[in-house]
Amino acid sequence: MIATDLDGTLLLPDKTTSPRTRDAIRAAQEAGILVIPATGRSVIDMPAILPPELGELAVCSNGAVVYNANADQVLLERPISAGVCKTLIKEVSRLAPGTKFATLIDRGYGILPGPGYLSLMQPGNHGRNPDDLDEISLDELWAQDAVKIIARHASIGLDELFEICQRASHAGVNPTTSGVPFIEMSAAGVSKASTLELLATRHGIATSEVAAIGDSANDVEMITWAGLGVAVASGTPDALAAADQIIAANTEDGVAAFIERVLHASDEPVPS
Predict the structure, then answer these.
(1) Beta partners for residue 73, in sequence order
(2) For the segment 23-66, what is each residue's pLDDT rounded down to a tens digit?
(3) Burial of 185 by CB count in 10 Å (0-12 exposed, 13-18 middle, 19+ buried)?
(4) Of 40, 130, 270, 271, which has the highest C-beta tally within 10 A?
(5) Tell me: the pLDDT tens digits for 187-228?
(6) How many CA atoms within 13 Å lie on the side-chain side of 206?
(7) How many CA atoms lie within 13 A of 180 on its CB side?
(8) Is 258 exposed, middle or buried (0-12, 13-18, 19+ CB in 10 A)?
(9) DSSP 3-state assignment of 183?
(10) Which of 196, 212, 217 has its CA nearest to residue 245?
């Protein structure tokens, strides 16, 4: 298995994939390698950015959802319970008054912005336009299970807010960041790594047979978990530190070059 992040890793800056990358993915699949995108993005983004070669199986929302884009079908959901949402939001609000929250619901198809959230949201965040959304009360926000809780603050820096969310994670969440100006929280134990492990087990693939490629904090767990952890050269310091191997940046077709090397190595004869 080769698992790859999308933004900053597989995708070019314009959110497309190069012909070389698509050719490499097809060649890997023809060689019997399962290639799986693993992203923080929700299912609503997938049809627009996934190359056709990767449409059957994608890990979305940092591991909370497994999705088939070709059929627009959610295959697995690992949500945060409503009770945990309530406890977490109350705790973070106590530690950092003024924090604004939103939740992704309905397998990632829907979003609920809490009080004040839309004033901090930029067009395109979460694949949506804030002008198309209406805020709801906190009582309504934490009344439903969620695939992701989102937290942001107008005056507290992202690193500090992340530390606060980590302090509150005993409520039953797993906080992370992905290069965007907000904190993303999945259910405790849910990450790209843990969901990829489920998929690998279902396909009879050992961890030692997995390579995971990423560029950001939300990739560190899968880079560390995989038999071969890989980071692109343009990745964050924590992703680079976690990796066994550094490859070229997404702007230089680093993932494609990595796949080509893997396939070339598999073609070499085994010494007698």
Answers:
(1) 68
(2) 999 999 999 999 999 999 999 999 999 999 999 999 999 999 99
(3) buried
(4) 40
(5) 999 999 999 999 999 999 999 999 999 999 999 999 999 999
(6) 3
(7) 21
(8) buried
(9) strand
(10) 212
